[in-house]
Amino acid sequence: MGQKGIPDWLNSSLWSSNPTSYAGDRFRGSSPKAPTETLKPESPTRAPVPEPPPARRSPPRSPRPQPAEVPRPEVAPPALDPSPSSRFSPEEISRQSQLLAELSKKVINIEEVRRLAWQGIPDGAGIRSMVWKLLLGYLPDDRGLWAQELEKKRSQYEAFKDEFLVNPSEVARRLEESAGHQYEELEGGNSGLLSRSEITHGEHPLSLGKTSLWNQFFQDTEIIEQIDRDVKRTHPDMHFFSGDSSFANSNQEALRRILIIFAKLNPGIRYVQGMNEVLAPLFYVFRNDPDENNAICAEADAFFCFVELLSEFRDNFCQKLDNSVVGIRATITKLSQLLKKHDGELWRHLEITTKVNPQFYAFRWITLLLTQEFNFADGLHIWDTLLSDAEGPQETLLRICCAMLILVRRRLLAGDFTSNLKLLQKYPSTNISHLLYVANKLRGPSAG
């Protein structure tokens, strides 16, 4: 044990951030952060990563590439994944080859995929899309079932689009055409126009009935407008999501459709501001799948994986549960307790001495799954760990958030309310491998 009841591995300068100044505002916290705070030079290039615990098996689902309705643009902005193999460490090269070998098997060992992906999926391997789909249970472990399962899911998504994205006027027109056709047959070829008495009350734009398509349409308008605003603000620093190109516009439209369909299928939650930030990494990774057919079907795949991911965090988005034992406030309290357990001195300084309420910074950390605290590439690395942990993403997320506090403990202990709040709301750049290493250490017993 080191000073003040803190383990030796935590007292090491390896985990102390250099208290130099940091800079750079972010647009809604989403633009890449300038490398402002780094770990001490003594730190190794990659921290050792302990073996993760045995993984749980995800419920299988499956895929098959399906021809797309919209051709992929001829020139797409480059993905973040590709990078020269010369920049890979021997560990990353070994892990990549192990992952490729496992993914090539007829029946994939999901636990082994979790073990390897938990340490980070090497950039440039082009397999993150496949691995995430396996980890989220969208693809079953039997490759022979992929084609059938993907066809079923992608067809189901097309049906959702037909059902939930059609304007009521189009539905009314179809009803009129159908009824008019029947009327023609009965009347021997008259005009086919519906008489006024045949237009039901529920089909009238001024109807306030609960079953009225138009009434539901007007109720949805406010949510759709919010989705539109948020989608346009998604990662404004990335050409993939932002700009005037047809490629960026098509990606924004895909995000918009996914979020609208999700809101209509989940009336208990609907749409909560910020869901676009959680969806963005999924869609980005799937849209950059090196398999052309999979890339074209990224929208459908991202929808189902988004649903699966949010099922783990559903209660954090439900406002009615905010003050319950499963709501977002309870989750933030768990983070506070985790910090108190592992670093009582830092907990007392933050919450008792400087009175920094964890809700001031942790609400965004938790609800947006850290998508706003790091640059996009580092965020993908963090998600590799989140999605692959056997205990589920929420517990892993809380450990990572606690590790974020511990990594800047020296600056926090020296700071007051204002400086600490500023630091935590604009978290400094850090070594992601070290961060995940510390988070994994927090699985162990408390610091005392």
Automatic annotation (TrEMBL):
<feature type="domain" description="Rab-GAP TBC">
    <location>
        <begin position="122"/>
        <end position="390"/>
    </location>
</feature>
<feature type="compositionally biased region" description="Polar residues">
    <location>
        <begin position="10"/>
        <end position="21"/>
    </location>
</feature>
<dbReference type="GO" id="GO:0005096">
    <property type="term" value="F:GTPase activator activity"/>
</dbReference>
<dbReference type="GO" id="GO:0006886">
    <property type="term" value="P:intracellular protein transport"/>
</dbReference>
<protein>
    <submittedName>
        <fullName>TBC1 domain family member 13 isoform X1</fullName>
    </submittedName>
</protein>
<dbReference type="InterPro" id="IPR035969">
    <property type="entry name" value="Rab-GAP_TBC_sf"/>
</dbReference>
<feature type="compositionally biased region" description="Pro residues">
    <location>
        <begin position="47"/>
        <end position="81"/>
    </location>
</feature>
<dbReference type="Pfam" id="PF00566">
    <property type="entry name" value="RabGAP-TBC"/>
</dbReference>
<feature type="region of interest" description="Disordered">
    <location>
        <begin position="1"/>
        <end position="93"/>
    </location>
</feature>
<dbReference type="InterPro" id="IPR000195">
    <property type="entry name" value="Rab-GAP-TBC_dom"/>
</dbReference>
